[in-house]
Amino acid sequence: MNSTAREVFELLRAAYPDARCELDFAGPFQLLVATVLSAQATDVGVNKVTPVLFGRWPSPQALAEADRTEIEEVIHATGFFRNKAASIQGLSRMIVDDFDDQVPVEIAELVKLPGVGRKTANVVRGHAFGLPAITTDTHVMRVAKRLGWTTSTKPEVIEADVQQLFDPSDWTILSDTLIFHGRRCCHARTPACGACPVARLCPSFGIGPTDPDVARALVKP
Question: Which of the 8 DSSP states describes residue 111?
Fold first, then answer.
C-alpha cells in the first residue's frame, strides 16, 4: 500500500466521517434503480422521486408490468426521463426473466442489464452487497487524478490504478469519501485548495484559490 495515499485517505476520512452513499434505498433493487436515475441528476433529487416510484411499484415484477408513461411521469424531475424509464423497466424485466427476480451480484451480469454500466454495478456491489468496489464516478476520477493516483481518463484504468493503492476492504468507503470531497471541496472548475484537508500532500495544490478565506467560501456543506 502506498503510504502517502494512505495518509491522504486517513485525512479525508477524518474530514468526512459521515461519508456514505447518499442515495436512499432498501435493498439491491432499489439501489440499482436509484443509481440509474442518478445519472445527470442529484442524489437529493432522486431521493424525492424514489419513495413515490417504489411506493407504486415496489418490486421488479411490478415495475416490469407498469405503464411506461406513468413511470415517466413519476421520474420526470430526474431528467432524461424517457431513457431512464426504458432502462429501469427493461432491467426490471430482465431481473424477473433471467435472474429469478433477484439482482445479480457479479459485475459481468449486472452490466448486461439495460442502463447499467460498471460504475452503477460497483455502487450496487459496494453498498447493497457489501463487496469491495471502487466507484469511478466523475468525482472519484477527478480527485484521483489530481492526487496523482492515476494519469488516465478512462474509468476502468482509474479503477485499477486506485485498487492497487489500497486494500480491498477500503475500496467502498474510499469511493464514498472521494465523492464527498469532490462534491464539497475539490470542485471541477474551482477547487477550494486553501481549505483542502489534504493540501500539503496534493500535487495539484494551487489550481484553485489558496487563500484560506477565499477557499472556505467555496466549500459546500
Answer: T
- The position carrying cell 459521515 is 18
Q: List, run by run, the mean pLDDT of 10-residue segments along the chain (221 residues).
A: 91 98 98 97 97 98 98 98 98 98 98 98 98 97 98 97 97 98 98 98 98 98 90
* The residue to which cell 426490471 is assigned: 92
Distance of alpha carbon 29 from alpha carbon 36, whole angstroms: 11
The set of catalytic residues is 119, 137
Tell me what pLDDT residue 40 has: 94
Q: Is 24 left (phi over 0), alpha (psi -120 to 50) or beta?
A: beta
Handedness of CA 195, 198, 200, 201 (dihedral sign): negative
- The residues, any chain, with a CB within 8 Å of residue 214's CB and separated by 6 or more, are 194
Domains of the chain (ranges; CATH) run 3-18+135-216 (1.10.1670.10), 28-127 (1.10.340.30)
